Amino acid sequence: MSGNSARGYSCSLRLDGMMNNRQCILGLDPSSTVVGYAVKGVDGTLVEAGLILPDRRSAGSFERIVSMRQYLNILLDRFRPGIVIIEWTKGKVGRRRHHGLGAGLTVYGCGVGAMATECDIWCRENGAELIAINENTWTRGVPKGHRQLVIAQRYESYRPQADPGGDIADAIVIIDYWLKVKLTTKDTKGNIQ
């Protein structure tokens, strides 16, 4: 794993290089302190995964969220995904999480909302599809640590200790979930959607 943190990124996995426009899916696990991201080809091949970090982790919540929103826009322009999948909050985040950085439910919701709004604007301007998936829907009650172990088994270069919040793993898993549902769901006429 590399520790590249240029432009607010901490790239943990990089495999096949950049995909061409519309040939990739961007998965996001947003919060007010860090945003996990993964880029996969439409065939499910992992291209890159990492973290979008604020300029200063100790900054106030507003400054953290604004800086991560700017880095998210850079990431969107870099990969130009055809589909963006973002985790949407279930509405349960305790105020004691994130080591006292003010990430209670209200601040967490602001972070998720800011990232979702940035994605919505970018997708509308660039003809991409934005999909929000409720956290309860895709996690199916599987603990975060278990999800990290599954990703570590699938991707040799993934190291759970470098992803203490499981944000990178979750960004990968949310794409996998969506691909599985998309490939196994039929519309009312029996066609695979």
Structural write-up:
There is one protein chain. The protein is an alpha/beta fold. The chain has a single domain (6-184), classed as Ribonuclease H-like superfamily/Ribonuclease H (Nucleotidyltransferase, domain 5), CATH 3.30.420. It has five helices and six strands. It has a six-stranded mixed beta sheet with strand order 1-4-3-2-5-6. The longest helix has 22 residues, at 105-126. The protein is globular and about 40 Å long. The N and C termini lie far apart (35 Å).
User: Roughly what is the average pLDDT, rounded to an integer?
Assistant: 82
The main pleated sheet reads as: 6 strands, mixed
Distance between the termini: 35 Å
- The number of helices is 5
Question: What fraction, in percent, of the residue positions are helical?
Answer: 25-40%
User: Based on DSSP secondary structure assignment, what is the total number of beta strands?
Assistant: 6
What is the H/E order?
A: EEEEHEHEHHH
CATH topology: Nucleotidyltransferase, domain 5
- Give the CATH class: Alpha Beta
Strands side by side in the biggest sheet: 1-4-3-2-5-6
Class inferred from helices and paired strands: alpha/beta
Assess the beta-strand content as a share of residues: 15-25%
What is this entry, summarized?
39% of the residues lie in helices and 20% in strands.
Top keywords for this entry?
39% helix, 193 residues, alpha/beta, Nucleotidyltransferase, domain 5, 5 helices, 6-stranded mixed sheet, globular
Secondary structure elements and pairings:
Blueprint: E1 9-14, E2 24-29, E3 35-41, E4 46-52, H1 61-79, E5 83-88, H2 105-126, E6 129-134, H3 135-139, H4 144-154, H5 167-184
Parallel strand pairs: 2-5, 5-6
Antiparallel strand pairs: 1-4, 2-3, 3-4
Helix pairs in contact: 1-2, 4-5
